[in-house]
Design brief:
With about 325 residues, this protein is mainly alpha-helical. The chain has 14 helices and no strands. One of its GO terms (cellular component) is plasma membrane.
Length: about 325
């Protein structure tokens, strides 16, 4: 029962952060002004700010937080490693390289960015999976292969930026993770992938709970371990690719959100998945709000705020893992 109360608190925080994001920026708007701007057809400045700038940006921030947190929760469960995350093991780097190839080499095919991000993330994950395969896949071997592939893919990203310096200016925001140019176009890009990914993930939490028991026990319970692990890796790639297509290489969300959720609701994925959904959206929306108002009117990319929070948390996890 206590866990249900925690989920209720997470939902409340999600809704609160949504309105905080809509209210704050260079132009501050009250809750009453937001409601009026949304419902009224009067062509006012507030209506223009809400409908054309803040509402699509806030929606995308929430969806990105949902996608990355679920992707991280899946990877940590599949690999049974608390340090797994889309940006740590190369999933994000694969999607990022694919998107940069489209943006830099084939800018006319910008509409293929969501699919490119998914395909890049999936191919990177499959490559990692193949490298880690040796009479089955051990989680530790999967992590090590992921780190190596991530370095290789980042080298490809750096090579693109080196060979095409005249086109780099347009992708700087993508590299650090930013929402400054978000419009309804990004909402339409990420929303279908998010809905499909979230729906499929919420149908499979019991299988991930069984997988967390270990391969031998899971096999004894009748679970096809390799097929189940492969399905979850594909779902993780889909969610990570959707987020990358909208906001770029935003780090640490998939690492820290599942851990924070576990501190309050435990490791049961039937509860952890919903908790990660609302907590992930909350954290990204709040971080984006901070990025807008901290040095207003100048804006900081949300990726910088997330890195400032995520790096210390990552070091905390390393120290904690060493003590254990």
């Amino acid at each position: 029962m206590q866990k249900k109360y925690v989920i209720t608190v997470f939902i409340f925080l999600f809704m609160l952060s949504f309105f905080i994001s809509l209210c704050n920026g260079v132009v501050k708007i009250s809750i009453k002004g937001i409601v009026k701007a949304i419902l009224s057809h009067e062509d006012s400045i507030n209506r223009q700010v809400i409908w054309n700038v803040r509402l699509p940006r806030t929606i995308v921030a929430g969806l990105v937080g949902i996608c990355l947190s679920l992707s991280g929760a899946i990877l940590q469960g599949v690999m049974r490693n608390p340090l797994a995350g889309p940006n740590i093991i190369g999933v994000s780097a694969g999607g990022g390289l694919a998107v940069l190839i489209l943006l830099i080499l084939f800018p006319d095919f910008y509409y293929l960015v969501p699919m490119g991000a998914f395909v890049g993330s999936l191919l990177a994950t499959l490559f990692i999976y193949i490298l880690a395969w040796k009479d089955g896949v051990l989680p530790t071997r999967l992590i090590l292969a992921g780190v190596a592939v991530s370095s290789l893919l980042n080298a490809g990203i750096n090579a693109l930026m080196t060979f095409y310096p005249d086109r780099v200016a347009g992708v700087i925001s993508f590299m650090v993770g930013g929402l400054s140019s978000t419009t309804w176009v990004q909402v339409k890009m990420i929303l279908p992938y998010t809905l499909v990914g979230v729906l499929l993930v919420l149908l499979l939490p019991t299988k991930l709970n069984i997988l967390m028991l270990g391969d031998e026990i899971a096999t004894g319970l009748g679970l096809n371990v390799e097929r189940t692990r492969f399905i979850f890796i594909i779902l993780s790639s889909l969610l990570a690719g959707a987020a990358i297509s909208a906001v770029g290489l935003l780090g640490f969300v998939g690492l820290i959100v599942p851990h924070i959720a576990r501190l309050f609701i435990g490791s049961d994925y039937r509860i952890l998945f919903p908790g990660s959904i609302f907590l992930g959206g909350t954290i990204v929306m709040l971080c984006d709000t901070v990025a807008r108002v901290l040095l207003a009117p100048m804006e900081i990319p949300v990726g910088i705020i997330m890195s400032a929070l995520g790096a210390p948390f990552f070091l905390f996890l390393l120290r904690r893992k060493e003590r254990v």
